[in-house]
Amino acid sequence: MNTIKLLLTITLLFISSSVLAHAGLKTSLPKDGAMLMASPKVLQLVFTKDVRLVKLTLADKSGALLPIEFKPSTTAASSYKLVLPNLPSSNYQVNWTVMGMDAHKMKGKFTFMVHGAATKVMNNHKEKPSNGQHNH
């Protein structure tokens, strides 16, 4: 009976320590599933623990990778921020890979939508209230 208790205790300790060792994405900016009226200025990832961000990609709805100024981190941190280029209206997917303090790699992804690019065209519309016609 004592052997079973000992094995059960060791198993539970092993499982709980491996679960605690892994970090996950706590929050992001833009948030997962966000619907934005304008292109976000920055991409921010906040993790539950210090990790090294080793890979980060941004793809549009066709799967084409967009050029972003990402360099793999050499030191661990819980928060990463990256300036984004002006994004046209589309659906986007962010894919990330981090390495925890135990050298374990974890991957994740989230999506967001930008549908405010048409706003610039509309802002250039000048209506003439007197006769209802407009200029381009």
**Morphology call:** elongated
The helix/strand order is HEEEEEEHEE
Beta-strand fraction estimate? 35-45%
What is the CATH architecture assignment? Sandwich
How far apart, in Å, are the first and last alpha carbons? Answer: 85 Å
CA radius of gyration: 23 Å
Q: What is the SS-derived class?
A: alpha+beta
Summarize the biggest pleated sheet: 6 strands, mixed
The level of helicity is 10-25%
Topology at a glance:
Layout (H helix, E strand, L loop, with lengths): L1 H20 L3 E5 L4 E3 L5 E19 L16 E7 L6 E10 L5 E10 L3 H6 L2 E2 L6 E2 L1
Parallel strand pairs: 2-6
Antiparallel strand pairs: 1-3, 3-4, 3-5, 5-6, 7-8
Q: How would you describe the overall organization of this protein?
A:
- By secondary structure, the protein is of the alpha+beta class.
- It has helices spanning about 1-20, 120-125; strands spanning about 25-30, 35, 40-60, 75-85, 90-100, 105-115, 125, 135.
- The chain starts with a helix and ends with a strand.
- Mean pLDDT is about 80; it is low at about 15-20 and about 120-135.
Which keywords apply here?
single chain, Cu-Rt/internalin_Ig-like, Immunoglobulin-like, alpha+beta, copper, two-stranded antiparallel sheet, disordered C terminus, elongated, 2 helices, 6-stranded mixed sheet, Ig_E-set
Give a short summary of the structure.
The protein is of the alpha+beta class and 136 residues long.
